[in-house]
Write a structure and sequence with these properties.
CATH architecture of the largest domain: Beta Barrel
GO molecular function: efflux transmembrane transporter activity
Radius of gyration: 48 Å
Helix content: 25-40%
Keywords: Coiled coil, Membrane, Transmembrane, Transmembrane helix
Strand content: 25-35%
CATH class of the largest domain: Mainly Beta
Strand order of the largest sheet: 4-14-17-16-15-18
Distance between the termini: 91 Å
InterPro entries: Beta-barrel_RND_2, MdtA-like_BSH, RND_pump_MFP, YknX-like_C
Number of strands: 27
GO cellular component, one term: efflux pump complex
Structural class: alpha+beta
Largest sheet: 6 strands, antiparallel, barrel
Number of domains: 4
Shape: elongated
Organism: Thermomonas aquatica
CATH topology of the largest domain: conserved putative lor/sdh protein from methanococcus maripaludis s2 fold
Number of helices: 5
Length: 420
């Protein structure tokens, strides 16, 4: 038997046999294959996948309600102004001793805002008081002399009838009495003048106290203690002409400039809707107060005063920018008629002879046939086809069709991200 030989042959090493497969090399191979697949998928998403057409969008705005409807017939921009605003100054020239106001502080009518140095005014008042006292003393002395002269004239009058004194002596006594009466009247008038001068001097002392002419809010503090203030401009930079500026916040309104070509649409008492630049989501109702009967030749505009129904609201301050929409009078809406919406005219295009707009539906667009109404500035009234809150594509390109994939423009996407 060759059993031993077979066993010996099995122990020989075959130099030509392929090396055995390593387990570590197998895992490396699988990892390389997986990485290649991931890179391929990522490349497809980045370069091969359809990103859609880049578009800009705008929101559709509803302009009606269930019971009544009104629409803006004209929009205009302007600023918040105050009908009662005053830069308060002293009535006399003097040095500021004390300032009692700060910006943002509310003051009442008659409240002390500042005081000036009263030394000169007080000295003038003291002098007037002395002059009054002297005039009164003089009047008392003349009155005593007059009393004696009247008694002397009466006595001589009795004696002249008995021919005990001459008529010349009697007439002299009468003349002296009349002269003293005139002196007393003059002394009394001098005393009255001195009294009036004292009242004026006292008013001069009171003029060193600056008071608020009406209730309002301080928006500017113009002077400091130690500065010279004057109601008149001194022609230099070292004399202030005011203590501070106050505004009656209840007198705030909006002043807008309307083009001459559109002023016919505006009527006194017309309802309005004001949006402040600082609060875009706050729509303030109001009405037209008056149309100023004068036009600006250079700008071809007419000023319109617009009242606000939110008077006293601390969010409204002077010189704020505002946009005013002049509204039609509210009209009843039929039960079977849906309120219209306002759409930018740039979102409406003509396709196959029909007016359409492209509404955003996820990452695609949906073509909507429209029933149009009036033209309101840069917008169109849409009676059918869109609803308030829909987002529509602005300036739709020719290649945009129903169902096309779209993506927001970069600046618009960045703005949305910042708002979120």
């Amino acid at each position: 038997m060759n059993t031993s030989a077979d066993l010996l042959n099995s122990l020989k090493i075959d130099r030509n046999a392929p090396p055995p497969v390593s387990r570590k090399g197998l895992w490396i191979t699988l990892a390389i294959i997986a990485a290649v697949l991931v890179l391929a998928i990522a490349a497809w998403f980045l370069f091969g996948r359809d990103k859609g057409i880049e578009v800009r969008t705008a929101e559709v705005v509803a302009i009606g309600n269930g019971g009544a409807s009104s629409a803006s017939v004209l929009d205009a921009t302007g600023y918040v102004v105050a009908r009662r605003m005053a830069t308060v100054s002293a009535k006399v020239t003097g040095k500021v001793r004390e300032i009692l106001i700060e910006e943002g502080q509310r003051v009442e009518a008659g409240q002390v805002m500042a005081t000036l140095d009263p030394i000169d005014a007080e000295q003038q008042r003291a002098l007037s008081a002395s002059q009054l006292q002297a005039a009164r003393s003089q009047a008392v002395g003349v009155q005593a002399q007059l009393k004696e002269a009247e008694a002397n004239a009466a006595r001589l009058g009795a004696l002249v009838g008995q021919k005990l004194v001459s008529r010349a002596q009697f007439e002299q006594a009468i003349a002296q009495r009349d002269a003293l009466r005139a002196q007393l009247a003059a002394a009394q008038r001098n005393a009255q003048v001195a009294a009036d001068s004292l009242r004026i001097s006292a008013q001069g002392v009171d003029n060193t106290i600056v008071r608020a002419p009406f209730a309002g809010v301080v928006i500017a503090k113009a002077a400091q203690p130690g500065e010279i203030v004057s109601p008149f401009s001194a022609g230099g930079g070292y004399t202030r002409t005011g203590i501070g500026t106050i505004v009656d916040m209840d007198s705030l309104e909006v002043e807008v400039e309307v083009g001459e070509a559109f002023i016919g649409r505006v009527k006194p008492g017309m309802p309005t809707e004001t949006v402040l630049n600082a609060y875009q989501d706050w729509k303030i109702p109001g009405k037209v107060i008056a149309i100023i009967p004068a036009a600006d030749r250079g700008k071809a505009t007419v000023k319109v005063r617009v009242g606000l129904d939110a008077k006293g609201d601390p969010r409204i301050v002077p010189d704020m920018g505002a946009r005013v929409g002049f509204l039609e009078a509210a009209k009843p809406v039929q039960a079977d008629v849906k309120p219209g919406v306002l759409v930018p005219a740039a979102a409406i295009v003509e396709r196959d002879g029909k007016d359409v707009a492209f509404a955003i539906n996820g990452d695609a667009v949906q073509q909507r046939a429209l029933k149009l109404g009036r033209t309101l500035g840069d917008d169109r009234e849409v009676l059918q086809g869109l609803s308030g809150g829909d987002a529509v594509v602005l300036d739709p390109p020719e290649q945009l069709v129903d169902g096309s994939r779209v993506r927001l423009a970069r600046e618009e996407a960045a703005s949305d991200a910042n708002n979120n």
